[in-house]
Specification:
single chain; alpha/beta; four-stranded parallel sheet; 11 strands
Amino acid sequence: MNLFMIDDITLANNGISPYPLCVDQSLLDDVYFGWDYYNWSQQSNIQKIMKEKFSHIRPTNIWSNDADTLPLFDDYETTNDWHNLYSVMRYFYNQNFKVYNFDTTHLIKKDIPFIYIIGTKSGPHNWKKNRGKLFINIKQHTKEYIRKGKVLLVVDMSDEGFPMQSIDDMSISEAGYYEHIGEEIYNLATKENFPLDNIVYLTSNYKIEDKYKSMNQMVLNWTEVIMKNREPNPIPNLNKYHLSTIDVWNGFGVSTDDVNPEINIGVDSLDKWAENKFEEAFNYKKDNLSDMKSFLCLCKLVKDWRLFHSLGLNYHGLHEKGLTSFILSKERLFNSPYISEKLKDKLKDNTDYELNKIISDKDIIDKFSLTINLQCELFNNDKIKHHDNIKDLLKKLPLYIDKKSFDDVNGFTAWDESFYNNTFFSYTYNTFATSNDTIYLTEKIWKDIMCFHPFLLVSNYGSLKQLKELGYKTFSPYIDESYDDEKDFDKRSKMLLSEVNRLCEMSKTQLLDWYVKQADVLVHNFKHFVKLNPAKETINKIMKLYKVL
């Protein structure tokens, strides 16, 4: 009997992408992924537990793969979740090769080298509490095979661009506290006697190779992949492999709510198509000038620095000039020394949206105001943090554009191009913006680019510089981008708020003129994003490591 059943083999995309990730064909015969828990979730007893305990998480009880279910059970640690490299290899190439999935015992019996992935659920701040147990879910027979040098062990943290370490106050406020990730992996692998040459660490952090060079660390920053495929209407063309927590998007895939019928245009048609798309965006703004808002600012998950910036927008009177969203979570508010158990009990049955509607109640606004002030303690602007400004913002909540609950507004799969059509530029909140130990370019930037939107980027120091190194253009002199050179996030925040205020002082007619002057930049970025293939070298490196096992 053939070891590999037909369901265990997946052919690559076979050329469906007009801008494919074509790597060295000599490296792509067969790719084997080994799983210690292959078909684990298909066991009747496991399915019963999943249905009883976790249907609220995944109502269909269908999981991406077996290892994704491990963290749901008390007997397993918070590793073995998020397997982005596997998704890339299985779904995104247009070259002919086979991807095999099988139980590690069968692969070892046949003496077949394979890739073994350890994902890290929710990032290193959660992983830290089980730091010494990073490899706990690897079965003993697989560990022995790893020690023999027959496995490419991939620590896949590419769902996010976490800083390599989070020990300063600003980083801790967003990412939680943890020490140097690379050194921890090195130490733990050494303790297990795993060959270091066969270990790969995947991350979305562009600074990774500057920070730690002793391991095979690859930048697979998948926030760009995201824009080409999404369920339930997959967009079949993708071209670059920057890894992230959501499987598939890129290029033309920023079609928002519906798949763009022109998605399969070829390379020769791209220039004209991009120019036409920009003209559509410009003409819409011109024809609807009186109804336009100055800027777009979306905020889903409230973090300390996003809270401060929303307060800053309020201080300058800008929420009324833009399309802005902002809602405080009940969980976040309740995690405060100023909120009594009695008050929590009184409000516990309210949804986040309902809570934000009553948050200005005179009996509780002072308590919430103190809470907000406390959460902005790392910022020095006392005028923005003043209780009067906080209370004024609280009275306006919830701020939303088209949704009363953020639960179904996923940053990757549910968004609306009309937000961009009805505004001139974006004030974009990026993830891990406070840290100088990462540059993480998220899907938020690619949405701006694919919707022909200039942007001010509330992000890591040097993010605009990184974009330019990737071949994109930015918006100076139309936007003062000196903020990108400021290392101190508090000072950088002041510069950003000052600049967005300056732009919002323009009339709509002035903003339209300002917008069209950036046409060349906006069209260039759109085309560059569609065609760029920055991960080709990285994938080749990984495949070379795999081929010599």
